[in-house]
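Two records follow; treat each independently.
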Amino acid sequence: MRDHLTAPRSFSWCGRRRLVAEVLECWRDNGAWWQGEPPQLFLRVLTTDGGIWELCRKAAGGDWEVYKRYD
């Protein structure tokens, strides 16, 4: 799956830009396909400030969104 993945270099959260240092994990979730939900692509990333985040992209070529922040 990584061959087709273009991970974001950065993202914004609460008005602050976070720089992605490393992609820790990548997976696809098919969602509730029987209800017409599209597949989603997830990344778990490490940022340069030491944060771990999950990002989600709902459509191929779509924008990445913050899905979860680990405390």
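The next record belongs to a different protein.
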Amino acid sequence: MSSISNYGFEVQINEEHLCKAGIDTDRHVVTCILTSLRRLNEPDGLDLTVSGLNSETNEHPEWVNKELKDGDIITIKVITTDFEPARRIRPKRSKEMMLNDKLRYYHQLREELKEHLE
């Protein structure tokens, strides 16, 4: 690990501790995402996700995936130590799985755009 501190986030909702998210590697991403979603003919969404990517293992840790409500107070503190293990880790995807996803997306786009491609 490099001599530069790794940053993470201590997250609370309404003063209740949720997590201390962080990854002790030289290459990673940690995110705190607040989402407010409104779509036609579908339920509204309001949630908090704390997750990341360990670029060295290609694993996706997830600490929090929580629905929010009006009035919730979210506190995020930047931290450099005492990271907690993720509650869930999505395993890395094989090259074959990634290729299959790309091919599926390619065929979907080709079908959607076929009148523009001729």
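Discussion point: The chain has a mean pLDDT of 91. How would you locate this feature using only the token line?
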